[in-house]
Amino acid sequence: MSDVVGTWQVALSDGIHKVEFEHGTTSGKRVIRIDGKETLRRDWLFKLVGKEPFKIGKHQCTINIDAISGFAYEYTLDVDGKPLEKFSENRSKISRTWTLSLDGVDYRVVLEKDTLDVWVNGQRIEANAEFTEDGTETAFDIAGHAAILKAVSTGYRRQGINHVLFVDGNEIPIAKE
User: Fold this and answer.
1) pLDDT value of position 72
2) What is the DSSP string of the chain?
3) Is the pLDDT of residue 10 over 90?
4) In angstroms, rounded to a whole number, what is the distance separating the alpha carbons of residues 81 and 114?
């Protein structure tokens, strides 16, 4: 019997990771799975509340276990010291994500705006960036399809730069994650 009490989706540059947490409230058992792979197991713990640290790639994560009343517990996930919701909100400010399907295969393209790294389906790829009159164009390949990531100034300081992805000349809308 599974005691899964919490499931979270963590969107990172290398993909969306599913975190599952099992908590045996009688035995204190704790199990953490990332993308279906068990990464931590503690079978007997007398302390039923506390924190369980682990990593997803280079990101430090913590599952917080708090008693709310009697034998009821609340489970929250922190990523890099921030609640998941705040981490995701900050992440959306420093990255852009597009999802598309080419030749029946789904792709997820992520631009890290702070490093200008481009990721395709969890793999950092080599891309050639060139300055243009309007901004920059970064050219790369997705399974034999020409992709261009254009960075163009909005002309407004508060709005910054628009990032637009074109694949085979077609604009790809930004994904909602």
Assistant:
1) 86
2) ---EEEEEEEEETTEEEEEEEEE-TTT--EEEEETTEEEEEE---S--SEEEEEEETTEEEEEEEEEEETTEEEEEEEETTEEHHHHHHHHHHHEEEEEEEETTEEEEEEEETTTTEEEETTEEE--EEEE-SSEEEEEEEETTEEEEEEEEE-S-TTT-EEEEEEETTEEEPBP--
3) yes
4) 19
Phi, psi of 12 (to 5 degrees): -125, 175
Determine which of 29-43, 110-124, 151-165 has the lowest per-residue pLDDT on average. Answer: 151-165
pLDDT in tens, 86-115: 999 888 888 999 999 999 999 999 999 888
- Whole-prediction pTM: 0.77
Give the 3-state DSSP-derived string for 119-150, with helices as H, strands as E and coil as C.
EECCEEECCEEEECCCEEEEEEEECCEEEEEE
